[in-house]
């Protein structure tokens, strides 16, 4: 989820924490524990300051793993014990642990996902039923916080909110599966399905759809249960070895391949050599695929520059490349 949603979830957890009788005497410490705990797994966002490749490879990785989900609350409890007097360490740890776990848990429902089961497995868990920012979830939390502010019982308010959210998540999952079934019916019977991607957008009824078969990639959108494929690409073999002999060692290319599960590629001859472009087919919006990897190759196929990341117009991408804003 986005930072704002994690913040309001932290506020909600601070309200729910009043159910604990021990909280009354140290409420500032508990509020600190749940608010920081609701944010701390995303500390890896600072990696973006280094470069996109490092960020893409590591965001929601080790900081969302099983060891760190257990370590963060212990670290927070010790720090809070140094800041506040007369705290009951068990209760601070308990609410910090709930906050950290909730952060990691809700993130697995995004299409980005997390490595929440690391080190048992490095597989990305991405259920893909909730957009990174879901306005309904955010507004529900704001309404609940307002009710608390005007004097409502926080335990009743936020307990009711949890029930509503569970129903909402189940509804989203059912909608996703119905869209998947509708999309698969549009694929020719003689093609073997390899991958299916159905992910939410910020709009409740609109979803992104990408299906890879043994011969084609189908890209489109759905509205309610109606699916429309706007692009269809014939699958072609990986670029020739001469293009990839150095490119496959590039950090931006490796980051793209690790993140993207359905993509196509193009090779274009330039004045200085070649441009090798990999395009993630899962992120189509307004006719543009926003997540790409670009590698510039010289006439001997060495990588001269590269870039990977989200660029929402071709014009912005070209400006980045011209200004040398590549990693």
Distance between the termini: 27 Å
Low-confidence stretches: none
Mean pLDDT: 92
Structural class: alpha+beta
Strand content: 15-25%
Q: What value does the Rg take, in angstroms? A: 23 Å
User: Per the principal axes of the C-alpha atoms, what is the gross shape?
Assistant: globular
Number of strands: 10
Helix content: 40-55%
Spatial strand sequence of the major β-sheet:
1-2-3-4
The main sheet comes to: 4 strands, antiparallel
Total of helices: 10
**SSE string:** HHHHHHHEEEEHHEEEEEEH
Commentary on this structure:
The chain is an alpha+beta fold and 327 residues long. It has helices at 3-16, 27-37, 52-58, 66-83, 89-107, 135-149, 154-184, 241-247, 251-259, 314-322; strands at residues 193-200, 206-213, 216-223, 226-234, 263-269, 273-280, 284-285, 288-289, 291-298, 303-310. It has a four-stranded antiparallel beta sheet, covered by helices on one side. A four-stranded antiparallel beta sheet has the order 5-6-9-10. Helix 2 (27-37) runs antiparallel to helix 4 and helix 3 packs parallel to helix 9. The longest helix is centred in the middle third of the chain and has 31 residues, at 154-184. The protein starts with a helix and ends in a 5-residue tail after the last helix. The mean pLDDT is 92.
